[in-house]
Design brief:
487 residues; alpha+beta; globular
């Protein structure tokens, strides 16, 4: 219910703001809202040639013509106007179209297209492959054995889950994939975990306690190897692309603990359980040990370690699954199937899941497209940055806040802001590093909720959204303090 109302609020407020902007001349047209593509120049006006300043008329007159769609066209870029640098004037059919600035995100129709071709189709491919592997884990009995070994801990965190339930193994694989920065593998494991938890849910339209706990822990995204962040920093020629690794680990760990405590208090989890305390201490010890090991490596050593560990772990998971299935081939025969046929069955289930979640993802991303292109997000972002500046928050922090604000809505959008910040302020600046920590230590909350709950048709998400947004805020605050500590 909360998510539905929030979605409607984004849509309605954005459309109202677009209409107001059109009638108050803030927007020249609404075509970019519908058909524009991210990075395209935005048209701000159209005038006759004689209405322009003399120096612009002279510049256009001196610019050679080029033929575009059989029509003569002259384009000139003027950067003398400080209020509108790099303003482009296109003279065509007796009028001059004026462009300034670029579109922040795709319009409605391109968003529909990219949602299908750039998000859903690759996701379906990932789902098909990894769901095929998970079917091998189920049929070979590996998931059952994994669940038995981890049950003593998971039943403390998820008291409503029966001992040795198969969902435990799926959640473990999801957490492990997130931990290693394997987003392509984490989503299929997570969706399978949600479907398994839904079987235990007495009210199919309402999120269960176990589903909420899993979602919030997943959203906190405890990460050991932020491979994509390191790659983006390397592309921007950072002196040490991996220098944000430890801050990312610490911040995501703080977010995970915060999610566990917030949801645990709400669900009255027994925090004094010996097995739970021992597991948390072991996890802290393991992360600390890995941080100390990584920290003593030189730059080349860190790059080699981070680029290979997660990939080798994924290959290891695939290899171990296939070998275990081959060794226990008799179990497949007992079920009147083969290893390959079981894989195909799982892949078909993954394909069905991918098609099922498409409308949920599409609806959320189109709403976010309207929100950003309307200019409403930018105004809210600027006001929040202004408010922080008035209470003494440094400009280095306020310059990075758009990434933190956009991250819950759009991974691609916040990634674009992150890259732009590194280009503008340099990757080794405080702002350049902080935006990377923001990007790594929070989750695309609205997208994740739409995908995970959409896959099982849960309509009432209860307090999931509020908790995930609170965890996002905690991660932002933690990132600022950790970045200040390190840099």
């Amino acid at each position: 219910m909360v998510l539905s109302r929030f979605w409607l609020a984004i849509f309605i407020s954005s459309i109202a703001f677009i209409v107001i902007g059109l009638f108050t001349a803030q927007h020249y047209s609404v075509d970019f809202i519908l058909n524009g593509k991210m990075g395209d120049p935005k048209q701000i006006s159209e005038k006759y040639l004689n209405q322009l300043p003399a120096f612009i008329q002279d510049s256009i007159a001196k610019t050679p013509e080029k033929i575009v769609d059989r029509v003569a066209e002259q384009t000139v870029v003027i950067d003398k106007i400080k209020t509108n640098p790099d303003t482009t004037y296109v003279y065509k059919n007796q009028t001059v179209k004026i462009f300034s600035g670029v579109q922040k995100t795709d319009g409605l129709l391109p968003t529909c297209k990219t949602t299908l071709f750039d998000i859903i189709l690759p996701l379906i491919a990932y789902l098909a492959f990894f769901c095929g592997l998970m079917q091998l884990l189920i049929d070979s009995g590996a998931s059952e054995k994994l669940a038995k070994k981890l049950s003593p801990v998971f039943v403390k965190v998820f008291p409503s889950i029966p001992k040795n339930h198969e969902s435990i193994s799926y959640m473990t694989l999801n957490f492990a994939a997130n931990f290693l920065g394997l987003d392509s593998a984490a989503t299929p494991f997570g969706l399978k975990a949600m479907q398994s938890l839904q079987e235990l849910n007495p009210d199919k339209d309402r999120a269960s306690d176990a589903q909420i706990m899993f979602m919030c822990l997943h959203a906190a995204g405890l990460t050991l190897i932020p491979t994509s962040i390191i790659g983006y920093r390397a592309a921007q020629n950072a002196a040490n692309p991996a220098d944000v690794m430890l801050p990312c680990i610490i911040t995501s760990f703080v977010g995970t603990i915060a999610a566990f405590l917030i949801v645990g208090i709400r669900q009255k989890i027994n925090f004094k359980s010996a097995s739970l305390v021992i597991t948390l201490m072991a996890l802290v010890g393991a992360i600390t040990g890995l941080m100390m090991y990584i920290n003593h490596l030189d730059i080349i050593g860190k790059n080699v370690f981070t680029s290979n560990l997660s990939g080798l772990m994924l290959i290891g998971i695939i290899g171990c699954t296939l070998i275990y299935a081959f060794v226990h081939e008799k179990k497949f025969v007992e079920k009147d199937t083969t290893v390959f046929d079981a894989f195909v069955t799982g892949a078909q289930n993954g394909l069905t899941t991918g098609v099922k979640i498409f409308p949920y993802v599409l609806g959320m991303l189109v709403a976010i497209s309207f929100f950003r292109n309307s200019g409403l997000f930018e105004i809210i972002s600027n006001w929040i940055s202004f408010a922080f500046a008035q209470v003494g928050v440094s400009k280095e922090i306020t310059d990075s806040l758009p990434v933190a604000m956009l991250r819950p809505f759009s991974s691609g959008g916040s990634r674009g802001f992150m890259i732009d910040a590194m280009r503008t302020f340099k990757p080794d600046s405080f702002t350049g590093r902080l935006v990377c920590i923001f990007q790594c230590s929070a989750e695309t909350t609205f997208y994740v909720i739409a995908v995970y709950f959409g896959s099982i048709n849960v309509k009432n998400t209860r307090y999931t959204l509020a908790t995930m947004l609170l965890v996002d805020l905690i991660c932002v605050i933690a990132a600022i303090f950790v970045a200040g500590w390190f840099f």
